[in-house]
Amino acid sequence: MIERENLILPNGKGWITLASLIAEKKYSKLFILVDENTEILCLPIFYIKMEEMNEWKILKIRDGEKNKNIETCIELWQELLLEGADRHSLVINLGGGMISDLGGFIASTFKRGIDFVNIPTTLLGMVDASIGGKNGIDFKNAKNQVGTVNQPKLVVIEHSFLKTLPKEQLISGMAEMMKHSLISSKDSWNRFVTSDLNDKAIFENLIWESIEIKNKIVQRDPLEKGLRKTLNFGHTLGHAIESHCLDNPYREALLHGEAIAIGIILATFLSTELLGFPQNELLEVYNTIESYFPKQKFSKNEISNIIKLLSYDKKNIGGKVLFVLLEEIGKPKTDCFVSDSLIFNAFEFYEKS
Amino acid sequence: MIERENLILPNGKGWITLASLIAEKKYSKLFILVDENTEILCLPIFYIKMEEMNEWKILKIRDGEKNKNIETCIELWQELLLEGADRHSLVINLGGGMISDLGGFIASTFKRGIDFVNIPTTLLGMVDASIGGKNGIDFKNAKNQVGTVNQPKLVVIEHSFLKTLPKEQLISGMAEMMKHSLISSKDSWNRFVTSDLNDKAIFENLIWESIEIKNKIVQRDPLEKGLRKTLNFGHTLGHAIESHCLDNPYREALLHGEAIAIGIILATFLSTELLGFPQNELLEVYNTIESYFPKQKFSKNEISNIIKLLSYDKKNIGGKVLFVLLEEIGKPKTDCFVSDSLIFNAFEFYEKS
After folding, report:
1. Are A315 and A323 in contact (CB under 8 A)?
2. Is B176 a catalytic residue?
């Protein structure tokens, strides 16, 4: 069902549809955007899957969130021009969230918009970044400040790319899966907590469930007028933590999921304080996340800086930072005001638990 | 009629609607984008028209097409961030086509898109640039290579801004009015040729007619799948001439309309050669344009360079440069192939007539 509605297609079906799309649209040129990693690890798989075709032009960028910026965009727009890309060219984003965010933005703005396809190669990309049409780049230490909302022509989900991922990247993607379950239903959360994630078939089913949760939400509210905001659970502080670590020379950058995992714990604590979210479920969320993600430490000054970064959050209205919290699992509430002192308490809970 | 469909509103009605829009949407912050000229000449008029409100923040950029680039965008995104703009802020573009092109792009990409309003202060802006939602910037010597299609919330047409314009700017806008008439109908063209443009009321009616022609086309085909392409009559070579002069240290930059005026003559000549457009009407078009616009001279080398620049035209498909030509006045034909040698002939006709 999901497949027909939004053209998110798993494995074999995705590749066949990509081939038909290219044949039907008669694109003038075919570009594949890769980074240093996906060029080596994923492009060979792409070539095998699409062996009938061979007229690809490769656009290659440096790996890592720190390159998701306007300078990289300028390089890519220029390369597209030099390579003779026109309005009927196609860009295929082969990579994780950084590639689909940046490649989606490039394609959405080159000559006022050309077609693009997302082929996520990370777990995070599959269950989150590649779906819903949000694209963009970081700007002046704040995440995704410049971008558009524009749907890809197709998303190809190919589970075998997951084999190319280092373990921490796989775990990073699980933060978004947890978030999807937490905002969706107790059943979904329980399935996540109790399933054997080492069983390939079970894990792939959970991935598909996660894709479906996100896709249903973004289809009902593509421009984030209401429902889609719930997807920001854990992201308000998560993004600020991510920006803080990216920008701080004394800290190692966190993977997106690593920052979001902390953000989920903090937001769940705030939910307990402000909306009466059950204490025992807070501990379950905490323990589940702690079983996958290494604990981080933040000084008082760092927390202050993180709170300062909240002011760049795109969901803010009139200077107020608004959170998505949970009344209970599966019952998100948007536009919740949270005081700075309660945020300090949340960090204290996270660090002391 | 047009007013309800697309919220393009003349004079008094436009200002009242802008005030209601701001009241209704409760924007968190109101930004006005101006350049060095419109700050001095148009902002005072704006303040008088909107005297009930006073919480404006001014974004100021340097005047001129050469600043319609990514560097100016970076400055503006940064200023919006520093001034605390959020998703519920409004950008009002007060200026000519350069301001609405750039401001529309900034607003369409800041935090993945915020509302914007166009208040064109030039004739060109009123009859063309502010309508239809195309925005963008020039990139690497080629026009509007980066941008989006995204409609403004409202376009306010205030004729009294035209009094602030130098004469050549007013005439520049007339090139687009001529184009609208030429692709629309013989009646419209005859009205333009035979009317006394010094009569204020007659001229304002012609402006409104021109807005209606453009608006009907962009409403029927917002994403330029077919019909909207006809608006590119005169623009294929016109844009290349404009880029050539902008980039050439030995030439003075042409105003957009001045370049388009030449483009219209060239395209009409090509129409005669390729589609049997009537010779006598070619001369009428030529004479009408020559009565307003100064003649330019181009060397063989310059014409070669202009032809080279055609390859960046956004309408190109698969490396072929495609023109909009006229079978007769009011009957445009899109996707016409034109050889380089015929383009040389067209320049010869233009210069020798």
Report:
1. no
2. yes
- pLDDT over 60 (residue B260): yes
Q: Do residue A273 and residue A306 come from a single domain?
A: yes
Averaged over A55-71, what is the pLDDT?
94
Mean pLDDT of chain A: 93
- Which of B115, B116, B146 to mutate: most A Cβ within 10 Å? B146
* CATH number of the CATH domain containing B302: 1.20.1090.10
Range of the domain at B191: 168-352
Domain count, chain B: 2
Which pLDDT value is given to residue A11? 67
Chain A contact set for B334 (CB, 8 A): none
Sign of CA dihedral B7, A223, A75, B73: positive
Please tell me whether residues B19 and B90 are part of one structural domain. yes
Instruction: Determine how β-strand A142-146 pairs with β-strand B154-157.
Output: unpaired
Q: Residue range B163-167: average pLDDT?
A: 93
ipTM score for this prediction = 0.89
- Is residue A139 located within the same domain as residue A204? no
State whether B78 and A311 contact (CB < 8 Å). no
Last residue of a domain, one of A165, A198, A215: A165
The helix or strand, by DSSP H or E, that contains position A57, with its residue range, turns out to be strand A56-61
Does A109 contact B147 at a Cβ distance shorter than 8 Å? Answer: yes
Question: What pLDDT is stored for residue A315 in this prediction?
Answer: 67
What pLDDT, on a 0 to 100 scale, did the predictor assign at position B149? 95
Cβ separation A86–B134 shorter than 8 A: no
